[in-house]
Write a structure and sequence with these properties.
The chain is of the alpha+beta class. It has six helices and five strands, in the order H-E-H-H-E-E-H-E-H-E-H. The structure holds acetyl coenzyme *A (ACO). Pathway: Nucleotide-sugar biosynthesis; UDP-N-acetyl-alpha-D-glucosamine biosynthesis; N-acetyl-alpha-D-glucosamine 1-phosphate from alpha-D-glucosamine 6-phosphate (route I): step 1/2.
Length: about 170
């Protein structure tokens, strides 16, 4: 019997039906991909993200409030996770945020954000599977393109995921 929590027992951010089976079928038998759950703070969500940047602790209530804030914007936040079926802990995460535009006949753009794979699991194609799932979702919900910002050192990874380098990123920190 697997020890991970099945989707049916979780409060999920979006419908798991949107996650493509072509991607989930390529995961190892020890892994499960699903939408973010309201209780994922207790499954190492933030510690997995800490390979990417600073992720200070938040309380269970603060986490749940942020989750509900995202879910209150239907078809905007698609955060998914990969869970180790033996430990019920998260080993990889990623998000595509859908931006509604007025240009291009009310077009939509998918923004890929916060991709992270636990150090012990890097190199097993989990990053690639997360990107493939997110770009499929972006396309399914009607986006005409999917974009992201990354460091120079991650350019080869995103090229392997099918992305090409375009234009520049500008930032103003507050
Ligand atoms: N440089 C060159 N090639 C790379 C790199 C890299 N930095 N990372 C992965 N690759 C290659 C792999 O070798 C593999 O190539 P192959 O198909 O020829 O074997 C291919 O890309 C797919 O790699 P994965 O195994 O799927 O990569 P992984 O699961 O390790 O995930 C990731 C990659 C997400 C970058 C991971 O290393 C990570 O979490 N890094 C720290 C956090 C981070 O930088 N996240 C991305 C920030 S950008 C954003 O969030 C939009």
């Amino acid at each position: 019997m697997p020890s991970f929590t099945p989707n049916s027992e979780l409060d999920l951010l979006f419908s798991a039906d949107l996650i493509p089976t072509e991607v989930t079928s390529q995961l190892g038998s020890d892994l499960h991909m699903r939408p973010l759950a309201k209780t994922d703070l207790s499954r190492s969500h933030l510690s997995v993200l800490s390979v990417l940047t600073a992720t200070p602790d938040v309380s269970t209530a603060q986490y749940a409030q942020a989750f509900e804030g995202m879910r209150a914007c239907p078809n905007a936040y698609f955060t998914l996770v990969i869970v180790n079926r033996n430990t019920d802990q998260i080993v990889g995460v990623g998000c595509v945020f859908i931006e509604q535009k007025f240009i291009r006949g009310l077009g939509k753009v998918g923004h890929i954000e916060d991709i992270a794979v636990d150090k012990s699991m890097q190199g097993r194609k989990l990053g690639l599977r997360i990107i493939n799932a997110l770009t499929t979702i972006s396309e399914k919900v009607g986006c005409y393109k999917t974009i992201l910002n990354c460091s120079d050192s991650n350019i080869p990874f995103y090229q392997k995921c099918g992305f090409e380098k375009k234009e520049n990123e500008m930032a103003l920190y507050h």
